[in-house]
Amino acid sequence: MAADTTGPLKGVTIIELAHIMAGPCCGMLLADLGAEVIKVERIPGGDDSRRFATVDIAGESPTFMMMNRNKRGIAVDLKTGGGKEVLRRLLKTADVVIENYRRGTMERFGLGYDSLKEANPRLVYCEISGFGRTGPYADRGGFDLIAQGMSGMMSFTGEGAGRPPVKAGAPITDITAGILASLGIVAALLERQHSGLGQRVDTSLFEAGITHTFWQSALALASGVSPGALGTGSPVAAPYQAFPTADGWITVGGANQANWLKLLGVLETPELGDDPRFVENRDRMENVAALEAVLNELFRKRTSAEWLAKLEVAGVPAGPVMSVGEMHQDPQTLARNMVLEVDHPRAGKVKTLGPPVKLSRTPASVRRPAPLFGQHTAEVLAEYGYSSEEIDKLAAAGAIIVG
After folding, report:
1. CATH number at residue 279
2. Using CA atoms, how far apart are residues 359 and 166, in angstroms rounded to an integer?
3. Which residues of the chain have pLDDT under 70?
Protein backbone atom coordinates (compact mmCIF):
# COMPACT_ATOMS: atom_id res chain seq x y z
CA MET A 1 0.00 0.00 0.00
CA ALA A 2 2.90 2.37 0.69
CA ALA A 3 4.93 3.97 -2.05
CA ASP A 4 8.54 2.88 -2.49
CA THR A 5 10.21 4.70 0.38
CA THR A 6 13.36 4.70 2.41
CA GLY A 7 13.71 5.20 6.12
CA PRO A 8 13.41 3.14 9.30
CA LEU A 9 9.61 3.53 9.49
CA LYS A 10 8.93 2.06 6.06
CA GLY A 11 5.85 -0.16 6.30
CA VAL A 12 4.25 1.86 9.12
CA THR A 13 0.89 3.37 8.14
CA ILE A 14 -0.22 6.54 9.91
CA ILE A 15 -3.59 8.28 9.62
CA GLU A 16 -3.20 11.98 10.42
CA LEU A 17 -6.35 13.72 11.67
CA ALA A 18 -4.52 16.92 12.55
CA HIS A 19 -4.32 20.49 11.40
CA ILE A 20 -2.14 23.62 11.56
CA MET A 21 1.13 22.82 13.37
CA ALA A 22 1.74 20.33 16.20
CA GLY A 23 -0.02 17.29 14.71
CA PRO A 24 1.18 17.93 11.14
CA CYS A 25 4.73 18.46 12.47
CA CYS A 26 4.54 15.04 14.12
CA GLY A 27 3.22 13.45 10.93
CA MET A 28 5.86 15.17 8.80
CA LEU A 29 8.75 13.94 10.96
CA LEU A 30 7.46 10.37 10.82
CA ALA A 31 6.81 10.61 7.07
CA ASP A 32 10.36 11.85 6.53
CA LEU A 33 11.51 8.70 8.32
CA GLY A 34 9.65 6.53 5.83
CA ALA A 35 6.17 6.09 7.28
CA GLU A 36 3.17 6.14 4.93
CA VAL A 37 1.18 9.12 6.24
CA ILE A 38 -2.35 9.66 4.97
CA LYS A 39 -3.56 13.12 5.92
CA VAL A 40 -7.32 13.35 6.40
CA GLU A 41 -8.56 16.91 5.89
CA ARG A 42 -11.98 18.07 6.95
CA ILE A 43 -14.74 19.25 4.66
CA PRO A 44 -15.17 22.14 4.00
CA GLY A 45 -11.89 24.00 3.79
CA GLY A 46 -9.32 21.46 4.87
CA ASP A 47 -6.36 22.28 7.10
CA ASP A 48 -6.48 25.88 8.35
CA SER A 49 -2.79 26.31 7.49
CA ARG A 50 -3.85 26.35 3.82
CA ARG A 51 -4.94 29.90 4.65
CA PHE A 52 -2.14 30.84 7.10
CA ALA A 53 0.21 32.77 4.85
CA THR A 54 0.97 36.34 3.86
CA VAL A 55 2.33 35.07 0.52
CA ASP A 56 1.39 32.20 -1.74
CA ILE A 57 2.93 30.23 -4.59
CA ALA A 58 0.47 29.79 -7.48
CA GLY A 59 -2.34 29.96 -4.93
CA GLU A 60 -0.79 27.37 -2.61
CA SER A 61 0.15 28.18 1.00
CA PRO A 62 3.89 27.87 1.81
CA THR A 63 3.03 27.12 5.44
CA PHE A 64 0.83 24.17 4.46
CA MET A 65 3.39 22.88 1.98
CA MET A 66 6.17 23.06 4.57
CA MET A 67 4.35 20.98 7.20
CA ASN A 68 2.73 18.41 4.93
CA ARG A 69 5.38 17.18 2.52
CA ASN A 70 5.76 13.39 2.16
CA LYS A 71 2.05 12.84 2.87
CA ARG A 72 -0.87 11.75 0.75
CA GLY A 73 -4.04 13.75 1.30
CA ILE A 74 -7.71 12.84 1.34
CA ALA A 75 -10.76 15.00 2.14
CA VAL A 76 -13.46 13.43 4.34
CA ASP A 77 -16.50 14.83 6.15
CA LEU A 78 -16.63 13.01 9.48
CA LYS A 79 -20.08 14.44 10.17
CA THR A 80 -21.49 12.09 7.56
CA GLY A 81 -22.07 8.39 7.94
CA GLY A 82 -20.09 7.67 4.81
CA GLY A 83 -17.16 9.75 6.02
CA LYS A 84 -17.07 7.96 9.36
CA GLU A 85 -17.14 4.60 7.63
CA VAL A 86 -14.23 5.60 5.40
CA LEU A 87 -12.15 6.51 8.43
CA ARG A 88 -13.09 3.33 10.31
CA ARG A 89 -11.92 1.27 7.35
CA LEU A 90 -8.60 3.09 7.24
CA LEU A 91 -8.07 2.77 10.98
CA LYS A 92 -8.93 -0.92 11.08
CA THR A 93 -5.49 -1.77 9.72
CA ALA A 94 -3.52 1.40 10.52
CA ASP A 95 -0.54 1.35 12.85
CA VAL A 96 -0.98 4.89 14.17
CA VAL A 97 -3.56 7.67 14.27
CA ILE A 98 -2.62 11.26 15.15
CA GLU A 99 -5.38 13.68 16.19
CA ASN A 100 -5.48 17.13 17.75
CA TYR A 101 -9.19 17.75 18.21
CA ARG A 102 -10.60 18.99 21.50
CA ARG A 103 -11.31 16.31 24.10
CA GLY A 104 -14.48 14.35 23.29
CA THR A 105 -14.63 15.24 19.59
CA MET A 106 -13.45 11.86 18.34
CA GLU A 107 -15.76 10.14 20.82
CA ARG A 108 -18.73 12.10 19.44
CA PHE A 109 -17.79 10.84 15.99
CA GLY A 110 -17.78 7.30 17.41
CA LEU A 111 -14.04 7.16 16.69
CA GLY A 112 -12.49 7.43 20.15
CA TYR A 113 -9.67 5.18 21.25
CA ASP A 114 -11.84 2.82 23.28
CA SER A 115 -14.00 1.99 20.26
CA LEU A 116 -11.16 1.89 17.74
CA LYS A 117 -8.99 -0.49 19.76
CA GLU A 118 -11.80 -3.05 19.71
CA ALA A 119 -11.39 -3.36 15.95
CA ASN A 120 -7.62 -2.77 15.97
CA PRO A 121 -5.90 -3.68 19.27
CA ARG A 122 -2.50 -2.85 17.74
CA LEU A 123 -3.43 0.78 17.05
CA VAL A 124 -1.20 3.48 18.56
CA TYR A 125 -3.53 6.41 19.23
CA CYS A 126 -1.72 9.74 19.58
CA GLU A 127 -3.52 12.79 20.99
CA ILE A 128 -1.92 16.23 20.89
CA SER A 129 -3.85 18.94 22.69
CA GLY A 130 -3.44 22.28 24.41
CA PHE A 131 -3.18 20.92 27.96
CA GLY A 132 -3.39 17.12 27.81
CA ARG A 133 -6.33 14.78 28.22
CA THR A 134 -6.42 14.87 32.03
CA GLY A 135 -6.44 17.63 34.63
CA PRO A 136 -8.63 20.71 35.17
CA TYR A 137 -7.68 22.27 31.81
CA ALA A 138 -8.27 19.17 29.67
CA ASP A 139 -11.32 20.68 27.97
CA ARG A 140 -9.60 23.93 27.04
CA GLY A 141 -8.37 24.66 23.57
CA GLY A 142 -4.76 25.68 23.31
CA PHE A 143 -2.45 27.67 21.09
CA ASP A 144 1.30 28.22 21.15
CA LEU A 145 0.91 31.77 22.50
CA ILE A 146 -1.15 30.60 25.48
CA ALA A 147 1.16 27.66 26.16
CA GLN A 148 4.25 29.86 26.10
CA GLY A 149 2.63 32.22 28.60
CA MET A 150 1.33 29.57 31.00
CA SER A 151 4.42 27.35 30.90
CA GLY A 152 6.56 30.17 32.30
CA MET A 153 8.53 30.64 29.09
CA MET A 154 7.37 34.23 28.53
CA SER A 155 8.43 35.21 32.05
CA PHE A 156 12.09 34.55 31.28
CA THR A 157 12.12 35.46 27.57
CA GLY A 158 12.80 39.12 26.90
CA GLU A 159 15.13 41.98 27.70
CA GLY A 160 14.88 42.02 31.47
CA ALA A 161 12.97 43.17 34.54
CA GLY A 162 10.31 45.77 33.93
CA ARG A 163 10.08 45.01 30.22
CA PRO A 164 7.00 43.46 28.54
CA PRO A 165 6.80 39.65 28.27
CA VAL A 166 8.17 38.29 25.00
CA LYS A 167 7.08 35.23 23.03
CA ALA A 168 9.71 33.13 21.31
CA GLY A 169 9.58 34.01 17.63
CA ALA A 170 9.00 30.41 16.54
CA PRO A 171 5.81 28.52 17.57
CA ILE A 172 8.08 26.55 19.82
CA THR A 173 5.47 24.64 21.85
CA ASP A 174 3.71 23.51 18.66
CA ILE A 175 6.94 22.24 17.15
CA THR A 176 8.13 20.66 20.40
CA ALA A 177 4.76 18.96 20.98
CA GLY A 178 5.09 17.45 17.51
CA ILE A 179 8.59 16.20 18.32
CA LEU A 180 7.47 14.78 21.69
CA ALA A 181 4.49 13.08 20.07
CA SER A 182 6.68 11.49 17.41
CA LEU A 183 9.00 10.20 20.14
CA GLY A 184 6.02 8.77 22.03
CA ILE A 185 4.70 7.09 18.88
CA VAL A 186 8.04 5.48 18.06
CA ALA A 187 8.33 4.28 21.69
CA ALA A 188 4.82 2.79 21.54
CA LEU A 189 5.59 1.05 18.24
CA LEU A 190 8.77 -0.40 19.73
CA GLU A 191 6.89 -1.65 22.80
CA ARG A 192 4.20 -3.15 20.55
CA GLN A 193 6.80 -5.52 19.13
CA HIS A 194 6.87 -7.21 22.56
CA SER A 195 3.24 -6.92 23.71
CA GLY A 196 1.41 -6.98 20.37
CA LEU A 197 -0.78 -4.15 21.65
CA GLY A 198 -1.10 -0.47 20.88
CA GLN A 199 -1.70 2.25 23.44
CA ARG A 200 -2.57 5.92 23.84
CA VAL A 201 0.11 8.58 23.47
CA ASP A 202 -0.92 11.86 25.13
CA THR A 203 1.10 15.09 25.04
CA SER A 204 0.34 18.79 24.89
CA LEU A 205 1.57 22.25 24.02
CA PHE A 206 1.56 23.12 27.74
CA GLU A 207 3.90 20.23 28.59
CA ALA A 208 6.04 21.06 25.56
CA GLY A 209 6.50 24.55 26.98
CA ILE A 210 7.30 23.20 30.45
CA THR A 211 9.96 21.00 28.86
CA HIS A 212 11.80 24.14 27.77
CA THR A 213 12.08 25.36 31.38
CA PHE A 214 14.60 22.73 32.52
CA TRP A 215 17.27 25.23 33.67
CA GLN A 216 14.81 27.76 35.06
CA SER A 217 12.76 25.08 36.82
CA ALA A 218 15.90 23.59 38.35
CA LEU A 219 16.79 26.96 39.84
CA ALA A 220 13.24 27.75 40.97
CA LEU A 221 12.73 24.33 42.58
CA ALA A 222 16.04 24.65 44.42
CA SER A 223 15.71 28.27 45.56
CA GLY A 224 11.99 29.02 45.55
CA VAL A 225 12.71 32.03 43.33
CA SER A 226 11.62 32.12 39.70
CA PRO A 227 14.33 33.38 37.32
CA GLY A 228 13.42 36.36 35.17
CA ALA A 229 14.33 37.52 31.69
CA LEU A 230 18.00 37.89 30.80
CA GLY A 231 17.91 39.03 27.19
CA THR A 232 20.17 36.68 25.27
CA GLY A 233 21.95 35.57 28.44
CA SER A 234 21.86 32.32 30.41
CA PRO A 235 20.45 31.79 33.92
CA VAL A 236 23.36 29.52 34.86
CA ALA A 237 26.54 30.66 33.13
CA ALA A 238 28.31 33.78 31.81
CA PRO A 239 29.40 35.10 29.41
CA TYR A 240 26.93 33.26 27.19
CA GLN A 241 24.97 35.74 25.11
CA ALA A 242 24.91 38.05 22.09
CA PHE A 243 27.23 41.04 21.91
CA PRO A 244 27.14 44.12 19.65
CA THR A 245 30.09 44.57 17.30
CA ALA A 246 31.15 47.48 15.11
CA ASP A 247 28.76 46.33 12.37
CA GLY A 248 26.27 43.86 13.86
CA TRP A 249 25.86 41.16 16.49
CA ILE A 250 27.59 37.91 17.36
CA THR A 251 26.91 35.23 19.94
CA VAL A 252 29.71 34.05 22.21
CA GLY A 253 29.76 30.96 24.40
CA GLY A 254 32.50 31.75 26.93
CA ALA A 255 30.57 30.18 29.79
CA ASN A 256 32.88 27.48 31.14
CA GLN A 257 36.16 28.46 32.74
CA ALA A 258 38.38 27.24 29.91
CA ASN A 259 36.47 29.22 27.29
CA TRP A 260 36.35 32.29 29.56
CA LEU A 261 40.15 32.33 29.79
CA LYS A 262 40.47 31.80 26.02
CA LEU A 263 38.05 34.70 25.47
CA LEU A 264 40.22 36.97 27.62
CA GLY A 265 43.14 36.14 25.34
CA VAL A 266 41.10 37.06 22.24
CA LEU A 267 40.00 40.32 23.87
CA GLU A 268 43.59 41.00 25.01
CA THR A 269 42.34 41.71 28.54
CA PRO A 270 43.98 39.09 30.81
CA GLU A 271 43.52 41.45 33.76
CA LEU A 272 39.77 40.69 33.75
CA GLY A 273 40.64 37.18 34.87
CA ASP A 274 41.95 38.62 38.14
CA ASP A 275 38.97 40.94 38.68
CA PRO A 276 37.22 39.54 41.79
CA ARG A 277 33.87 40.14 40.08
CA PHE A 278 34.72 37.77 37.23
CA VAL A 279 37.12 35.11 38.51
CA GLU A 280 34.73 32.13 38.57
CA ASN A 281 31.36 31.51 36.95
CA ARG A 282 29.54 32.16 40.22
CA ASP A 283 31.27 35.54 40.46
CA ARG A 284 30.39 36.39 36.88
CA MET A 285 26.73 35.45 37.38
CA GLU A 286 26.52 37.62 40.51
CA ASN A 287 27.95 40.54 38.54
CA VAL A 288 26.53 39.75 35.12
CA ALA A 289 25.36 43.32 34.40
CA ALA A 290 28.84 44.70 35.02
CA LEU A 291 30.39 41.91 32.93
CA GLU A 292 28.02 42.64 30.05
CA ALA A 293 28.85 46.35 30.15
CA VAL A 294 32.59 45.67 29.99
CA LEU A 295 32.31 43.12 27.17
CA ASN A 296 29.89 45.23 25.13
CA GLU A 297 32.44 48.04 25.05
CA LEU A 298 35.22 45.68 24.01
CA PHE A 299 33.29 43.90 21.27
CA ARG A 300 32.21 47.18 19.66
CA LYS A 301 35.85 47.86 18.72
CA ARG A 302 35.92 45.37 15.82
CA THR A 303 33.58 44.01 13.14
CA SER A 304 31.71 40.75 13.48
CA ALA A 305 33.93 39.06 10.88
CA GLU A 306 37.09 40.13 12.69
CA TRP A 307 35.89 38.84 16.04
CA LEU A 308 34.58 35.57 14.63
CA ALA A 309 37.88 34.86 12.92
CA LYS A 310 39.81 35.45 16.16
CA LEU A 311 37.35 33.44 18.26
CA GLU A 312 37.51 30.50 15.86
CA VAL A 313 41.31 30.41 16.02
CA ALA A 314 41.14 30.48 19.82
CA GLY A 315 38.52 27.72 19.93
CA VAL A 316 35.83 29.82 21.60
CA PRO A 317 32.32 28.87 20.40
CA ALA A 318 30.82 31.85 18.57
CA GLY A 319 28.65 32.69 15.60
CA PRO A 320 26.91 35.49 13.73
CA VAL A 321 23.28 36.45 14.32
CA MET A 322 21.84 35.63 10.89
CA SER A 323 18.50 36.31 9.28
CA VAL A 324 16.44 33.32 8.14
CA GLY A 325 17.40 34.07 4.55
CA GLU A 326 21.08 34.18 5.45
CA MET A 327 20.71 30.87 7.27
CA HIS A 328 19.20 29.29 4.14
CA GLN A 329 22.32 30.26 2.17
CA ASP A 330 24.88 29.37 4.81
CA PRO A 331 27.34 26.68 3.64
CA GLN A 332 26.73 24.52 6.71
CA THR A 333 22.98 24.59 6.09
CA LEU A 334 23.56 23.49 2.50
CA ALA A 335 26.17 20.88 3.44
CA ARG A 336 23.68 19.28 5.83
CA ASN A 337 20.96 19.24 3.14
CA MET A 338 18.68 21.40 5.25
CA VAL A 339 17.23 23.18 2.21
CA LEU A 340 15.77 20.86 -0.44
CA GLU A 341 13.55 21.20 -3.47
CA VAL A 342 10.40 19.28 -4.43
CA ASP A 343 8.16 19.38 -7.50
CA HIS A 344 4.63 20.46 -6.59
CA PRO A 345 1.81 19.76 -9.08
CA ARG A 346 0.56 23.34 -8.94
CA ALA A 347 3.32 25.49 -7.43
CA GLY A 348 6.18 23.95 -9.42
CA LYS A 349 9.61 23.64 -7.83
CA VAL A 350 9.25 24.54 -4.15
CA LYS A 351 11.99 24.74 -1.55
CA THR A 352 11.49 23.08 1.82
CA LEU A 353 13.55 22.32 4.92
CA GLY A 354 15.34 19.00 5.03
CA PRO A 355 15.12 16.26 7.68
CA PRO A 356 17.13 17.31 10.76
CA VAL A 357 18.13 13.78 11.82
CA LYS A 358 20.64 11.87 9.71
CA LEU A 359 20.68 8.06 9.77
CA SER A 360 23.58 6.29 8.06
CA ARG A 361 21.80 3.16 6.80
CA THR A 362 18.10 4.07 6.55
CA PRO A 363 18.10 7.83 5.98
CA ALA A 364 15.13 10.13 6.18
CA SER A 365 14.20 11.80 2.91
CA VAL A 366 11.80 14.21 1.23
CA ARG A 367 10.05 12.17 -1.45
CA ARG A 368 6.86 13.98 -2.35
CA PRO A 369 5.34 17.47 -2.09
CA ALA A 370 2.39 18.38 0.12
CA PRO A 371 -0.92 17.21 -1.36
CA LEU A 372 -3.54 19.34 -3.05
CA PHE A 373 -6.89 19.32 -1.24
CA GLY A 374 -8.36 15.85 -1.72
CA GLN A 375 -5.64 14.95 -4.23
CA HIS A 376 -5.33 11.29 -3.22
CA THR A 377 -8.87 10.54 -2.02
CA ALA A 378 -9.82 8.23 -4.89
CA GLU A 379 -6.37 6.59 -4.94
CA VAL A 380 -6.36 5.82 -1.21
CA LEU A 381 -9.97 4.63 -1.06
CA ALA A 382 -9.35 2.30 -3.98
CA GLU A 383 -6.41 0.80 -2.10
CA TYR A 384 -8.74 0.14 0.84
CA GLY A 385 -11.23 -1.77 -1.26
CA TYR A 386 -13.67 0.89 -2.44
CA SER A 387 -14.94 0.47 -6.00
CA SER A 388 -15.09 3.43 -8.38
CA GLU A 389 -18.89 3.35 -8.08
CA GLU A 390 -18.69 3.52 -4.28
CA ILE A 391 -16.22 6.39 -4.45
CA ASP A 392 -18.48 8.30 -6.84
CA LYS A 393 -21.45 7.70 -4.52
CA LEU A 394 -19.55 8.99 -1.48
CA ALA A 395 -18.44 12.06 -3.43
CA ALA A 396 -21.99 12.73 -4.61
CA ALA A 397 -23.22 12.52 -1.00
CA GLY A 398 -20.57 15.03 0.14
CA ALA A 399 -18.80 12.50 2.37
CA ILE A 400 -15.55 12.93 0.46
CA ILE A 401 -13.94 15.30 -2.03
CA VAL A 402 -12.03 13.80 -4.90
CA GLY A 403 -9.32 16.23 -5.97
Report:
1. 3.30.1540.10
2. 36
3. 1-5
